[in-house]
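Example record used in the benchmark description.
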Amino acid sequence: MLEDVRVNDRLTIPAAELAWRFSRSSGPGGQGVNTTDSRVELSWDVAGSPLLPTTLRERALSRLESRLVQGVLTVVASEHRSQLRNREAAAARLAALVASAVAAPPRARRATRPSKGSVERRIAEKKRRGETKKNRRSFPTD
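Model output (C-alpha cells):
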C-alpha cells in the first residue's frame, strides 16, 4: 500500500526508508473526526539514509538543519478529511523539501559594469527630468 516517494528524475526514496504515523486530526470531518486517524506524519532519516551520496547528504543536512530532529525530517499533513489524501499531501511535501534541499546551488553572479551608453542615457534622462521640474516653477531661477 505504501509507495516510494519520487523526488526528481534521479532520486526516489524507497518505502522501506519512510516511517508513517497516523493520528486523529482536528478540524472538519463531522462525527468521523473523532474515530478516524486521518492526520499523517511522514518521517525520513536524512542523516542515516544510504540513498544520498555524501555531497548531497551534506547539502541536505545543512539546508534542512532547522527542520531536522536528530537527522530525521518529518512532515505533517492534516488538511484533508481522508487519510489517503493526507498521505499524498505529506509525500508531495516531503518530495518538494528534499528536492529543494539537494538542488545544486545557483551560479555565482559575475560582477559587471554598466556600459558607457547606458550611463550617458541615464544622465541625459535625469537632466530632462530636472528641466521638466524646473519649468514647472512659477519663477524660474535661471
